[in-house]
Amino acid sequence: MSSLNIKKLLDRFTRNWIAKAASVGIAVFLFVFHRMTTLETRFFSIPLIAQTSSEFVPASSYTRIVRVSIRGDPNAIYPIIENDIEAYVDLRKFNSEGTYSAPVQILKKGSALGLEPIEIILDPAEISVTLDRKASKYIPLSANLRGAVETGYTLESHTLLPNQVAVEGPAEVLNTVSELYTDYIDLDGRSEDFAVMVNILNRDPLIVIRGNGMTEFRGFVRRSVPVRSIEGIPIMPENLNPAFTVEIGRTGSVRLEGDQADLDSFVPPDYFLSVDCSGITEPGEYTVPVRIDLSEELILVRRDPLEIKINVLPGGNL
Q1: In this structure, which CATH number among 3.10.580.10, 2.170.120.30, 3.40.50.2300, 1.10.620.20 belongs to the domain 227-314?
Q2: Cα separation of 266 and 230, whole Å?
């Protein structure tokens, strides 16, 4: 090619080069702008996993949910579900108690594999966590009862199986935990023995309950029987020789069982509690049994005393 032709070619390329460069720049800008306007953003929240060494665990509250923002081509990002991205913070390199900061990282799985979005933003991008030595112990369980059994019945006793659970967590936190409770166990309307599986409540996310986190509650329901205790009942002498008098230094008490109306209306009659003095022929101190005169409507559960010391003196009415 002659120098003349080369010169003409260069003149053609350089003629209006500013306008040509501007055109190319505008074209690139329009391409990028179009590309940007066709991209979309997805937001979702996923759990944050704290990875620690076998000897240490988190001992302070920390953000357990991470908000993820993914910007990219709609066809690429919309098939992604929350389970396709795992958020974690790696604390395994820290091997002593203390407070540490570490970045939040992600692991892509499933539909997210091979995804090359323009932008992935994590909120928070970094967290601070206090670490303490891991400890474990057994903690007793208590039933969390709610309501009342059917009228006329009572919850006589109950059991939990297991009645204690193994837990693990930071040593300092476990030192403050002495008891765990079950979820509510409803007693309303119960009139017979029953058994239910119930969750064990764990209100501290720093503590982990080993096992399935459940216990079996067994309740033993019995028909309740109304009872009434009466104190200060006089103990009266019967069949005493008129030549004597008697000193009885105390009163008695009874516990009765029966219909509620009969119990409420009952008033101990004279000589309800008594001692038989028919065998006493001379003054002195005697130990004699206490008798009770009880109607058939009521049942005697307990009486006190069963026997009593009395002092028989001369000087009665002859």
Answers
A1: 2.170.120.30
A2: 10
pLDDT 10s digits, 4-48? 555 555 555 555 555 545 555 554 444 444 454 557 788 889 999
**Structure confidence by residue, pLDDT tens digits, 244-288:** 999 998 999 999 988 888 888 999 999 999 999 998 889 999 999
217 and 196 in contact (C-beta within 8 Å)?
yes
Distance, in Å, from the CA atom of 298 to the CA atom of 267, rounded to the nearest integer, reads: 12
Topology (CATH) of 39-133: RNA Polymerase Alpha Subunit; Chain A, domain 2 (2.170.120)
Q: Architecture of 135-223 per CATH?
A: Beta Complex (2.170)
Cβ neighbourhood burial of 124 (10 Å; 0-12, 13-18, 19+): middle
